[in-house]
C-alpha cells in the first residue's frame, strides 16, 4: 500500500500548477442535472389508459343519475359509510372498457369503482386534486364476464347529480 501511495503522489505531483483549459464534460452534466432538478415540476397529466387493441367494436352507454345523501339509502354500499349507485354490464368477449364520470359538486366528492361481479375490485379512481369534477379511465385487460360500476358519493350529507359514460370494446 505504501508503494501505491508513493507512486500516486509521484505521478500526480507534477500537475499541481496546471489550470484547466475548459470545463470537464462530467461537471457540465452535473450542473445541467442540478439546474433541471430545481426547475418547477409540471402538473401531472392523467392518461386515460392504454390504446384499445385494433379490430374491436365500441358500444357506448350514457347513464344520468344522482347519488346521495346517505340518509335516503337503506344501507351504505362503500366501506359501510357512503351511498352509491350500481350499474351492471356484461362483457360477452374479452375486451376493453372506458369510463367517464362527471358530476356537479366538489372535485373529490365522488369515487368510481369497477368490480368483477362477485369476484372483486378491478379499478378504483378519484378525480385529481385541483381538477374538474370528472374521472376518466380505460382498462384493456377486461375478460368476458359480468361487471359492476359503483358511483360512490364521498359526501354523505349531499346529493350529487352525475353523468356516467361507459364505452366497451369487444
Task: Provide a concise account of the structure shown.
The protein is an alpha+beta fold and 170 residues long.
Structure commentary:
With 170 residues, this protein is an alpha+beta fold. It has a domain at 58-169: Jelly Rolls (Sandwich). 15% of the residues lie in helices and 39% in strands.
Mean pLDDT: 78
Fraction of residues in β-strands = 35-45%
Q: Segments where pLDDT lies below 50 for 5+ residues? A: 1-46
Q: What distance separates the N and C termini?
A: 71 Å
CATH class term of the domain at 58-169 = Mainly Beta
- The gyration radius over C-alpha positions equals 28 Å
String of helices and strands: HHEEEEEEEE
Q: Please, how many helices? A: 2
Named CATH topology of the domain at 58-169: Jelly Rolls
Helix-and-strand structural type: alpha+beta
Share in helix = 10-25%
**Biggest sheet strand line-up:** 1-8-3-6
The CATH architecture of the domain at 58-169 would be Sandwich
Main sheet? 4 strands, antiparallel
Report the principal-axis shape: globular
Tally of strands: 8
Task: Give keywords.
8 strands, globular, four-stranded antiparallel beta sheet, disordered N terminus, 39% strand, Jelly Rolls, 170 residues, single chain, alpha+beta
Layout: helices, strands, pairs:
Elements: H1 2-13, H2 25-38, E1 58-67, E2 84-90, E3 95-103, E4 110-116, E5 120-126, E6 134-142, E7 146-153, E8 160-169
